[in-house]
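ASSEMBLY PREDICTION REQUEST
Request ID: AP-0331
Submitted by: J.K., bench scientist
Number of chains: four
Total residues: 464
Priority: normal
Notes: Please return the full assembly, not individual chains.
Input sequences:
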Amino acid sequence: VSDLNDLIIRYRKFTHERDWQQFHDPRSLILALVGEVGELAELFQWRGPQIADAADSNSELNRRASEEIADVLLYLVRLSDELNIDLLDAAHKKLSAAEQRFPAYAFKGQAPDKTQ
Amino acid sequence: VSDLNDLIIRYRKFTHERDWQQFHDPRSLILALVGEVGELAELFQWRGPQIADAADSNSELNRRASEEIADVLLYLVRLSDELNIDLLDAAHKKLSAAEQRFPAYAFKGQAPDKTQ
Amino acid sequence: VSDLNDLIIRYRKFTHERDWQQFHDPRSLILALVGEVGELAELFQWRGPQIADAADSNSELNRRASEEIADVLLYLVRLSDELNIDLLDAAHKKLSAAEQRFPAYAFKGQAPDKTQ
Amino acid sequence: VSDLNDLIIRYRKFTHERDWQQFHDPRSLILALVGEVGELAELFQWRGPQIADAADSNSELNRRASEEIADVLLYLVRLSDELNIDLLDAAHKKLSAAEQRFPAYAFKGQAPDKTQ
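STATUS: Completed
Returned structure:
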């Protein structure tokens, strides 16, 4: 599976069959998204920067992270659907902007400093 | 565009060309994601539950929301790529679980109560 | 109790007695804070804007909210302690700035618009 | 200054003088809090675990962190005030519970594992 539309449409159908659109105003969906991001953050809160364990599909951490990441995506998909936003198109536009703003030759190995 | 893989691969290429993988450990990406979720939340913080303005593609609010939602997706895509997680597959699995857990006939019009 | 210093010192002592300073670098504490904010958000995600239930000390929602709010404060206190930041002083300074920036006569009943 | 009540009362007065209580329902305040937590996270997103720079009162990072931490505290104070929650009392209760749950002798140098 690599088609995001299938997920969008499947979740929309899920929502309508339960008559849950009434709960899916933007603020509610954002609060729900924040809840899932919180669960994702918790998984990594007391860990070091190493990625080995986290990136191993057989680890418990990887399994848990994959569930929380999925939950975040689901609310993001639902939110953009309610707002009539083409999620993938918006992301490609932002990436195009980043490509312009951070030319590879000038930003090689250098993270943008957020305190400047 | 509806293929999520294109976005994943494009962002991976963007990262490698700038040698930015070194910054993309899970904790850093989650903190960056939290930053974007914060910007999304800010857009809706003093607003009512109405969706009209937010869902109108010509409104400034819709344009801003679409940018922040895109940023959240981008970091989510990057994070799952670093963790070798199949984002779409994981989301479909969670949705399957939700379909089982909340049968349409039993949860019609009723939001699950998080304080119980 | 109304002295914040007592809480700061008590939590510092708690941390040192368990030798947990090693885990309390800024990023770890922020991720932990995000986790608690997520739990707070979850409590309100499917609710309306009404405050009655939430503000009633006898309600389950109020009890749960008070626990999550406490957790957020605790990590905020720990973070500012590790960073040598005088939390109350910093908050009073921000409030002074807000008093200047939003004179009562000019902003009466008007929320600052975040999309402008 | 170490009395939290002064801050609570000052911010309440600030709010009432501007007639802003109408915006301060729990969900709005939580979304605003999330916005500030996002700004705090951004400051640390591409940094290592080292604390030296961040804890130095003369550094730009410390100054910025102190502002964002203050903003988080302010919304937390406002939220608990609207919900009639005694913030400090709630935090002391949670700390008492943690002291019981994690005896120093048993948890010395060991962070609780969130994936278990």
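REVIEWER COMMENTS: Chain B touches chain D at residues 23, 28, 31-32, 34-39, 41-42, 44-46 (CB under 8 Å).
SIGN-OFF: pending second reviewer
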